[in-house]
Amino acid sequence: MTRSIFSVDSVLTRRAALKGIAAGATLLASPYVVRAQSGGTIKLGAPFHRTGIGASYGRWYERTAQAAVKLINEGGGINGRQIEMIVEDDGTDPKRATEVIEKFAAEYKVDAVFGHLFSHVVAAAGPRAGELKLPYLVCSEGHQLAAGGLNRYTFQPGITDVKSQVSSMAPWIAKNLGKKVTMIFPDYAFGHDHRDYFSAAIKAQGGEISALIPIPPTESSFTRYFPQIPTDTEVIYHVMVGPAVLTFVKELGDHFGSQRPQIFGFIDSLEAVDLATPQLEYLEGTYFWEGNPRYAQADQTEFDKFFRDKVGVDANGASTSDPKDISTYSHMFSVWETLFVIKQAMEMAKYEGPNQKKDFIVALESFDKFAASNEHPQGDKIFDGKSHQVFGKQHISQVEGSKLKVVHTTSIEDGMYEPEVDYTKMDF
Q: So where are the chain's domains?
């Protein structure tokens, strides 16, 4: 039987009880929002990447958020109040993102902000949210938060960070693909996390990094980089972002032909891209990290079925209204799960308005586990209230017949590490 979307047992708490963008950007009030008859609404700021290099993510993040908000509002909202989601385009730009955070605080006076993905945007917006004492829940993968680089107002409760991801998968890569690795990564914070933490993780498995090749995220051709790959490389580890992935794959194939090393990539480069695209044939047999498997697997859970149905995604990870419209399925679950974490924390804190933001934050910090459910369709998770970071399972998938088949799933414990910060000891 499917667990109720509003099940109480889907969250276990550490504490038994709590007392107590810029130019051109436009406001989008979700058309399905109905203001409550009394007590106003819960205003949530949603800074999505509608434009810029994160636009494909932003479109699906927004679609996922709309579905979750609709479901919550139809179920009575939060503490009897409807959610009013206010969307602003940050252009996937740090400066614009910071301006949007300020707009959410000063003009819209939102209760909380959620939704940022790209780590260089989070790095700029997070500190400003802290200064404005505005709860800021990111749907990113950067390690900056868990490393202690942000503040008590910033949380990442819906998706794991890069350090957790790569440390959990490095043993499988070393055992099954090879130990001499060349890394190709985007030259900004997200890529630097991969560089630093995967390098450490593969060395812990007795491996070595043969070469590090940083590439600007706006690069359009890659032929000049491939000669830097040492001839004894056993594994090419790539993390690409931006619109040039088809060019990257084609040029990689032209360079190596059939005599290629093993290839392991992060699906980030192919989110919203159809794997059956002719230019991607070279990826057949290669491997990818997935946070949430795009293709419904043989052991698909009832929770994944529920999530796909509500967001409008078919078994191939495409829109049910357009099979050519491919979702960013490996990441967008984080928006859904984050919204339900907001709901659960506000209900725990008996949240009634902005003067209770501290109660809301303390409630968030009290969580320690999220059980697989309709609210958490990606699976079970462990939440660390000190670092404000969640930990979950990772998937390694292989391209077979232009689809992704999961060949290995890590445990949550594989990606856990000791807390590097305790935000609960910081002042509000």
A: 8-160+329-391, 162-290+394-415
